[in-house]
Amino acid sequence: MTSAQVDQHRDGNEAVRAEGSEGGEGYQRGLGSRQIQMIAIGGAIGTGLFLGAGKGISKAGPSLILAYAIAGLVIFFIMRALGELLMYRPVSGSFSEYAREFIGPFAGFVTGWTYWLFWVVTGITEVTAAAAYMTYWWNIPQWVSALIFTVVLYGANLISVKLFGELEFWFSMVKVTAIIGMILICAGILTVGFSDAGDTASVSHLWNDGGFFPHGVGNTLMTLQMVMFAFLAVELVGVTAGESKDPKTVLPKAINTVPWRIAVFYVGALIMILSVVPWTNFHAGASPFVVAFEKMGLPAGAGIVNFVVLTAALSSCNSGMYSTGRMLRDLALNSQGPKVFTKLTRSGTPLVGTSFSAALMLVGVWINYQWPGKAFDYVVSFATISGMWAWIVILVCQIRYRAKSDRGELSRSEFRAPGAPWTSWFALAFIGMVIVMMGIDKDARVSLYCAPLWGLILAVAYLVLKRRNPEAAAFRKR
To answer: Do 145 and 131 form a contact (C-beta atoms < 8 A)?
Structure first.
């Protein structure tokens, strides 16, 4: 796709722009402050907390709280680095666009396709999980629920970006309400002493049952990969830049809420739960929320948590539908993907890219239904390393952008990351340590085997693409 064709395509989107506020690359700016705030909050809360934290508690005990706090600080550094880039140039498909500008066209190609794959794989797992959660109440074949969920979310994403934002707002509201409710219940038990756990509840559980590091510091370090996985998708707010109303105001506010979100929803929730119920009661495969409700004598908690994790899974799949179409369109506009992905609906949504991704999600659901087990788990494990690749790219781009802006070669961002570039270097070192931990853990090591294979596939594809279309290796600032 030549530069002239790109310009011609953008001119053809005038009808789209006329229907609503003009967005980046032909998109409508249909996401308001309320929706962006909840997208940012929802991105930091998922099944990693509601379900996965049980395994982390069993391995690290109360020290898992510290792991979440340190990882949360690193996530804040990453988000502030992203915020600096977004205020410099708020564009949809931001990660791959910044990679092209500050690293090179090949980096943009790798980042765009890797982030797309991350969300396709995540969407497959989450819609399958959502279908499994439905069997808690009704004996419905999983493939039926998975099909319905996929079709409904696909349709919502095609209608308008505003409808996507509304769905994500309410999905996030459910998760936030559940956590705040748990914190308030635990606080009541600790102060008033009601429920079955009232007589034994005490903050001393955080250090009395084997100490704060009951299994040693080493085991706490090994949980960092699970902790970082729980934070995957927090960067999704960057993809919304091209469709946000007043991004210069809304996005900084959303990013600056990261510290208190993590402090309340992760650190705060775990402190309260582990104070009411000793950490020795938790184990892998069981939600700490369900276990806590049971120990409190509130059996209805299992149904409540099942509804919450169902919501979290649908939220993740909804985000996947949204982001995959934008990433494919960004690649196509830069001649690094089929030009058919550039097409928008009259409401400004990427029709073909979203449809292609949704179709793959349905195929993945069928594969998971036919051949469940380790083979599928290996594919899913790739999500962690591919998600962290986006964080690495954000940090490298911010470091290079800051150097250029300090030299006066580029305009200074209105939302500069505090402590950068040193905070960005620290975050990169931390991610490097997590990757080393993944290499040590035999269960997570397989994701590191997948990464070089995926990189080789992309390298070959890029060489073929570059030979056929030299435009693929050219960066055009939008």
So the answer is: yes
Residue carrying structure tokens 């190609």: 109
Instruction: Determine which of 54-58, 245-249, 396-400 has the lowest per-residue pLDDT on average.
Output: 245-249
- Classified as helix, coil or strand, 196 is coil
DSSP designation for 29: -
Structure tokens at 290: 């369900």
One-letter amino acid of 210: G
Q: Give CA angle at 254 (248, 259), nearest 5°.
A: 135
**Structure confidence by residue, pLDDT tens digits, 429-448:** 999 999 998 888 877 777 78
In the numeric block, the tokens 């349905």 are attached to 362
Point out which residues pair with 244 in neighbouring strands: 31
Residue 257 has pLDDT above 60, yes or no: yes
State the pLDDT at residue 442: 77
Tokens standing for residue 244: 């946000």
Mean pLDDT on 146-170: 84
Token pair 């960067």 is at which residue?
A: 235
DSSP states along 224-250: HHHHHHHHTTGGGGGGGGGGBSSHHHH
| Residue 22, pLDDT score | 47
* Closest of 233, 224, 201, 280 to residue 46, by C-alpha: 233
pLDDT in tens, 260-277: 888 888 899 899 999 998
Strands of 22-160, DSSP E: none
What are 11's two structure tokens?
A: 């001119």
**Are 189 and 276 spatial neighbours (Cβ–Cβ below 8 Å)?**
yes
Coil/strand/helix, residue 358: helix
Q: Where are the alpha helices (DSSP H) in 161-256?
A: 161-192, 205-208, 216-222, 224-231, 247-256
- Predicted pLDDT of residue 414: 86
pLDDT in tens, 74-102: 999 999 999 999 889 887 667 888 999 99
Return the structure tokens found at 257: 């809420």
